[in-house]
Amino acid sequence: MASITATQFNLVYDVLSFSLATMGATTIFLWMRVSSAAERYKSALIISGLVTFIAAYHYLRIFNSWTEAFEWTKDGTVQATGIPFNDAYRYMDWLLTVPLLLIEIVLVMNLPDDEIFSKASKLGVASALMIILGYPGELVLDENHLGTRWFYWFAAMIPFVYIVYTLLIGLADATNSETDLTVRKLTKGVQWLTVISWCTYPIVYVFPMLGIARDDIVVYIQLGYSVSDIISKCGVGLMIYRISMAKSVALRRGSEQTPLLA
Amino acid sequence: MASITATQFNLVYDVLSFSLATMGATTIFLWMRVSSAAERYKSALIISGLVTFIAAYHYLRIFNSWTEAFEWTKDGTVQATGIPFNDAYRYMDWLLTVPLLLIEIVLVMNLPDDEIFSKASKLGVASALMIILGYPGELVLDENHLGTRWFYWFAAMIPFVYIVYTLLIGLADATNSETDLTVRKLTKGVQWLTVISWCTYPIVYVFPMLGIARDDIVVYIQLGYSVSDIISKCGVGLMIYRISMAKSVALRRGSEQTPLLA
């Protein structure tokens, strides 16, 4: 385990706790609003809440792993305990939440039921593949083996590019078919917010290649991924909420003719 | 307790945590969707959620047992603490969840109320018997006594074959009576997914007979059962959800004439 300063230890500690609280709060809000959504959009809200719920679980585990990996000494410094800090939790989290994130976006779009299922499946598989390809490289922090890290970075970027393409171009017709201007803007917004926030992950991934000192890397990676997670899970989840609610109102006014279940 | 490497310890640790998160997330989704199902299918959704809920409970126990069975040394290796890793949890879990799994399948099928009860009871008893007969063999890992493991394997395969026969052939009439094509495909799908995922359990069971090194067996068994559990509980549960919802929509449209309670 890298040696870190007391300030660095506290910084990561606070950010992990903040992330846990944010994920938990977003979960409760999304789930408590499900009963007010139209039948068709309930699944989207439940799944948005599941994403932040699963993330809250993993932030609790990451937080506990962080506090077990270090201990305070009598003179106010922090030293490694020998228990390794578990960085697999983030990947376990993403393996579940990233496909669900894409499914929640597809569920609020103007798509026929069968296309919802096929689009959600393809995006789900592509995103799971992206996570699986990224993980082996994440374990490489040693500066003499950064080529391996780059290799997995490139491998994971292939499904990543496919997902970005599908979100921005493949789903453009469905987005443009939204008759309500607010809904169309929100739908475009959620696609762009997802793509932009996702672009921060491959940047955090290459932190070790940017010449950051070995001991500092773990700190920067934790901070970077935590901020990205809050934007892509809570931010996107709350936009899905606004779309669901706007569409539920439109459905009730009878201005849309869509089947009732998804 | 077998001696394992740090990587093996982490692998099982991560997979157990991932399974716990998956079971928990599936439970919440299934239960939150109950209110949208037709009265007749609410029990099936609740029971599908119970299966993953009971599994989540046991995965928490298995996870904790795993972390108590090993400890980190100062030099970054893992050693046994002397507290045995409890593998009875899986059998306790199956004794409850496997009969429930079969009941949730029977509940979404086109069967008269009295036949639902008799089919569910027979399948429930057969599956409980299968678990009870399998357990004594699971305790035998010593390569000199693998004959005993084989004996219980064969004993448990008798009710197993009866269940497979009932699912694929005994219930075929009910499956073919589904008028909705999507529902019929989904019902066949859930029967086959159950049978295929269940076939992985007797394969994992014979891992010790396949010449895998003693120390590695516990790792492979944990990984194998975890993957099988996710498919047979979460995968099947979500298919039951799709059948329930499709049938609920059909019921509301009045295209089906079925009694309202199960």
UniProtKB/TrEMBL annotation, chains A, B:
Organism: Synedra hyperborea
Annotated GO biological process: phototransduction
Membrane topology: Multi-pass membrane protein
Protein name: Rhodopsin
Gene: RHO
Keyword hit for Membrane: yes
Cell compartments where the protein resides: Membrane
GO CC term (a single one): membrane
Record's keyword annotation contains ATP-binding: no
Molecular function, one GO term: photoreceptor activity
InterPro entries attached to this UniProt entry: Arc/bac/fun_rhodopsins, Rhodopsin_retinal_BS
Family note: Belongs to the archaeal/bacterial/fungal opsin family.
Key words, A-Z: Chromophore, Membrane, Photoreceptor protein, Receptor, Retinal protein, Sensory transduction, Transmembrane, Transmembrane helix
Membrane-traversing stretches: 12-31, 43-60, 94-111, 123-139, 151-171, 192-213, 219-243
Predominant cellular place of this UniProt entry's protein: membrane
Pfam family, one: Bac_rhodopsin
